[in-house]
């Protein structure tokens, strides 16, 4: 893998969407970019007993993941960034509402849309879970603003995830409509491969679903 500078790492983060990240992944990714041959796990560097138990349960290389692996406790926060996305948002919001495994928290960021995106987001998420950002800000900056806001909302409401949960951030653009089973499939993959800290779904074309745009992600 070619070495990335920290500046390039930030650009990669800001151009990424439709992926599921553990909460500490940005710092882990930057550390891995500085030392491309090293393996950086998400979260704290030290492994507690529970982490060791999970990593020891990994199947041998080349084998199918064991069906007996228990499911972890996950807390997923959806972060949806929109700019003039009113044409696509109804499908995106419907996809989120129909998830077979619903997300635990959600926040939307509108970057000064000139259409009625902000109205759609507030009607779906609630006024207290929608924030605005300047249109000049990039995707990564908008995500950061949203996470800071939802952190304050959950602290006030008492809805923050307990410490034993694996916390995930699900990044979505205003034109990325998830299949109803998308989040459940991502979390099942996380359970089957506990060392994975960045997960990407299969992405199909909006107008032609026979067109495969992406299939997972590798770093």
How many strand segments?
A: 8
Shape: globular
Looking across the biggest beta sheet, what order are the strands in?
4-3-2-5-1-6
What Rg, in angstroms, do the CA atoms define?
Answer: 18 Å
Main beta sheet strand tally, sense and closure: 6 strands, mixed
CATH topology: Spore Coat Polysaccharide Biosynthesis Protein SpsA, Chain A
Mean pLDDT across all amino acids: 75
Tell me the series of helices and strands, N- to C-terminal: HEHHEHEHEHEHEEE
Question: N- to C-terminal separation?
Answer: 8 Å
Set down the secondary structure blueprint:
Elements: H1 6-14, E1 20-22, H2 25-34, H3 49-56, E2 74-82, H4 89-97, E3 105-110, H5 117-125, E4 130-132, H6 139-157, E5 166-173, H7 182-192, E6 198-199, E7 202-204, E8 212-215
Parallel strand pairs: 2-3, 2-5, 3-4
Antiparallel strand pairs: 1-5, 1-6, 7-8
Helix pairs in contact: 1-2
3D architecture notes:
With 219 residues, the chain is α/β, with parallel strands linked by helices. The protein has one domain (15-30, 71-215): Alpha-Beta Complex (Spore Coat Polysaccharide Biosynthesis Protein SpsA, Chain A), CATH 3.90.550. 34% of the residues lie in helices and 17% in strands. The protein is built from seven helices and eight strands, in the order αβααβαβαβαβαβββ. It has a six-stranded mixed beta sheet with strand order 4-3-2-5-1-6, sandwiched between helices. A two-stranded antiparallel ribbon has the order 7-8. A hairpin with a 7-residue loop joins strand 7 and strand 8 (212-215). The chain is globular, with a radius of gyration of 18 Å. 25% of the residues are buried. Residues 1-17 and 26-59 have low confidence and may be disordered.
């Amino acid at each position: 893998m070619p070495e990335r500078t920290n500046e390039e790492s930030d650009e990669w983060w800001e151009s990424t969407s439709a992926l599921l990240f553990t909460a500490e992944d940005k710092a882990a990714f930057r550390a891995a970019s500085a030392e491309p041959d090293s393996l950086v796990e998400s979260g704290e560097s030290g492994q507690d007993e529970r982490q060791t138990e999970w990593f020891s349960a990994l199947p041998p290389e080349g084998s199918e993941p064991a069906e007996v692996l228990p499911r972890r406790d996950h807390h997923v926060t959806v972060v949806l960034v929109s700019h003039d996305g009113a044409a696509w948002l109804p499908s995106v919001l419907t996809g989120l509402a129909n998830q077979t495994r619903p997300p635990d928290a959600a926040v939307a960021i509108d970057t000064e849309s000139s259409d009625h995106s902000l109205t759609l987001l507030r009607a779906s998420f609630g006024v207290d879970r929608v924030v605005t950002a300047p249109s000049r800000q990039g995707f990564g900056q908008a995500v950061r603003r949203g996470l800071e806001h939802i952190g304050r909302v959950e602290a006030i409401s008492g809805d923050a995830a307990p410490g034993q949960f694996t916390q995930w951030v699900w990044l979505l653009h205003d034109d990325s409509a998830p299949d109803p089973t998308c989040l459940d499939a991502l979390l099942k993959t996380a359970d089957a491969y506990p060392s994975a800290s960045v997960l990407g779904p299969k992405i199909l074309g909006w107008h032609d679903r026979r067109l495969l745009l992406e299939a997972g992600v590798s770093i």
